[in-house]
């Protein structure tokens, strides 16, 4: 590409972006046959890469990297990072890692992008290996790095998650030793990591130190306590939660349903739903139906199911099945037959392998 033509790249990109028109494919604009440049302007390359990063088809921008390699050019750190992002958005981990390994100066941002790419594709071992390499290189992780390490330790296969169950405590120790001031995002991920590894006491320590406790963090704490049968502490966190959404309510109700003290907890779940300030939606009633089904409480199950039917008559077939199973377990076969006739009349079918709880926002 000749220098005169190179100067048209940036205006073309800007015009295309402002007019919301797609850029021509790279082989039509940036890499014409038998056309060479000596030193392409960094700003033009940066604009071109950013355009493809933001576009619907980032993979089209990979031709730019091919062009750079063909000419034997050495892009600066900024261009290298954009090429890295481009390959990650194109789901080409191999090319992204090749770009990362060839960088002369690997910044914290470069490490974070590559680690994030591995985690997105559930390559947890590779992400943790890169974290160790980062520490060996002398680069100091920031809050985003710590957040990703914690996420990596709780994703992937159950066996791998189990082997990573001690990572939360190690990361927490590293955070305390570092200059990183935990923000709401990092604290929330840390709480979630502790809860998922069964260390609800450590999770509570982090939770109590948070200046602003968001609903996600509160829900994690409630679920953690409920899963271990510590209902009173879960209720305390719930009562302290200012902004409550359906997920928080469901965490409480499902926690009641899992409690060993079935009869008392079933009643508490029922009273809890009735005490909700706003009218409960079908998700809340479905969670209560789950509790009643597990406890064999036919009367409450019927009331909860009818509420679900009223709010969403045809959208939750699992609620019909759950009520039918509860009635059948209690030997109320006449009621089972009536319910099945109702399902036929409403053309509700029992789908194999579906999750009966689900969500519909109704």
TrEMBL record:
PPR repeats lie at residues 107-141. InterPro entries: E_motif, PPR_At4g14850-like_plant, PPR_rpt, TPR-like_helical_dom_sf. One of its GO terms (biological process) is RNA modification. Keywords: Repeat. One of its GO terms (molecular function) is RNA binding. It comes from the Eukaryota. The keyword Chloroplast does not apply. NCBIfam families: PPR. This is Pentatricopeptide repeat-containing protein. The lineage of its organism: Eukaryota, Viridiplantae, Streptophyta, Embryophyta, Tracheophyta.
């Amino acid at each position: 590409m000749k220098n005169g033509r190179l100067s048209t790249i940036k205006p073309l990109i800007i015009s295309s972006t402002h007019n919301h028109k797609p850029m021509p494919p790279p082989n039509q604009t940036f890499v014409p046959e038998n056309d060479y440049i000596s030193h392409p302007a960094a700003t033009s390359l940066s604009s071109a890469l950013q355009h493809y990063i933001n576009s619907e088809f980032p993979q089209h921008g990979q031709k730019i990297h091919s062009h750079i390699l063909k000419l034997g050019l050495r892009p600066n750190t900024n261009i290298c990072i954009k090429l890295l992002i481009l390959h990650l958005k194109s789901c080409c981990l191999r090319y992204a890692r090749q770009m990362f390994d060839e960088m002369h100066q690997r910044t914290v941002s470069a490490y974070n992008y590559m680690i994030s790419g591995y985690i997105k594709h559930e390559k947890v071992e590779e992400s943790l290996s890169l974290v160790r390499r980062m520490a060996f290189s002398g680069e100091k992780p920031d809050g985003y790095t710590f957040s990703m390490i914690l996420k990596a330790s709780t994703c992937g296969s159950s066996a791998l998650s189990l082997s990573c169950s001690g990572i939360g405590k190690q990361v927490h120790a590293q955070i305390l030793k570092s200059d990183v001031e935990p923000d709401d995002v990092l604290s929330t991920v840390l709480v979630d990591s502790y809860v998922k590894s069964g260390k609800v006491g450590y999770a509570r320590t982090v939770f109590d130190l948070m200046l602003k406790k968001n609903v996600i963090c509160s829900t994690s704490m409630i679920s953690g306590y409920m899963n271990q049968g510590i209902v009173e502490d879960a209720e305390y966190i719930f009562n302290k939660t200012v902004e409550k959404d359906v997920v928080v309510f469901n965490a409480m109700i499902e926690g009641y349903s899992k409690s060993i003290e079935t009869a008392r907890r079933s009643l508490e779940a029922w009273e809890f739903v009735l005490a909700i300030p706003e009218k409960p939606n079908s998700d809340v009633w479905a969670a209560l139906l789950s509790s009643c089904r597990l406890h064999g409480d036919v009367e409450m199950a019927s009331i909860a199911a009818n509420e679900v039917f009223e709010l969403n008559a045809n959208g939750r077939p699992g609620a019909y099945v759950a009520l039918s199973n509860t009635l059948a377990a209690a030997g109320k076969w006449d009621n089972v037959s009536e319910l099945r006739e109702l399902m036929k009349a409403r053309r509700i079918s029992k789908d194999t392998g579906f999750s009966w709880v689900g969500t519909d926002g109704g």
